[in-house]
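Appendix B. Chain record.
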Amino acid sequence: MADQDPGNGTQVAAQTEDCVRPAARASFGAWSFATKILLRLLRILSGVPIVSLLVCGLLFLVFSKTLKGRSVGLSGSILAGLLYCSIGYWNRNWFKRLKRRLYVALLPISLVLFLVPLILAPDGAGAKDGHLRHCFVDGNGAFARYSLWNIIPEVDQVAVGMNVLPLGDPYVDFDKAKRMRSLTAPIYEELERDAGFGSLGSVMGMAYSELFRGEFRTGHYYVFLPRASERKQLPCLMYLHGMGGNRKSHLWVLSKLATKMQCAIVAPTFGLGNWDQAGGAELIVDVAREAIKTLPIDPERLFLLGYSNGAKGVTRAVVKAPELFHGLIYLSPVTEDEFFSSREFLLDHKSRRILFLHGGQDKRIPQEFVSSAVALLRHHGCNVQLKVFDDEDHYLILSQREAVTDDIIEWMAAD
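Structure tokens predicted for this chain:
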């Protein structure tokens, strides 16, 4: 057998390598391209929450009314800026040279700016004598002291909301938003000087839970009882908040009514205020029955007040349990007139009084809608009273708080 030529083997190996190399290069190129696309997608996906954090931080930094709100806003802005640079400029020479200094200098500052408001967050205790407190149906719940939306004062959340509201609400322009802020700010200044309201904290996080598709049906409700009372059993006014959450500013307004008239205030929380969703009417009825059992209130004088979207809850709760509620108050209401003709709503309607309070310049709920609802109720034989504030808009509870509470007191006392 002839000897094999070593040079021939080398030549074959070289030819094989020449064939494999382009394939390997092509495979590597495809992998490198896919990796770049994947990294870019990851940077985009991580950039969305970072940019969101930056925008929210700047909003609270600019529009907050308190130092705690600005502190949290600045903390979020610094942290978002660092994260943005780390994701967007991680391979830039200028960032490589500065990143260690930036982290060492700015991360501790961001942490301290957040920790101080965290430590000072209201504990939710309310008044020491229990006249103002958080409650949960059947005791199945607890106040979330260290939630972000309790760490940031409620007044700052409302201030930011009112500044951005004109961008998404066709009924609120920038002039109206400015007026709303001027009406709300003094109320928060007043309530923060009260020790009980100051330590009460905020439950606005339940509204945000619904906004971001989280669970908001916590069974929470506020209770306010006047400190001095000669009566063993008090009348009770249940308040159903409108869209935007259960704000302390509205509870503060009603607390003045309660002190003047010597009545209890019970205010359930239902997310954003979509009381027509599943569980809304059930919560109202459950809270009413629990309040009758646990509070010094007269079950024969339980009144139900719904503001704006809360009026839906008033009507639906009466349909569900008509025997519970002695009187109904619709304040700047969103009415569901189809329920007014139902057998359940009209049960014992002759003994149930109804009061409507509305603003004549309300663009969100035009006066003719409310007048139509009142006419329908009167057609069914209901005892209905309507008062229109000709020059006012949808926000009567803020702009005419004393007149509104005086009208409610007079109406309840006439029973």
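Further analysis of this model is presented in Appendix C.
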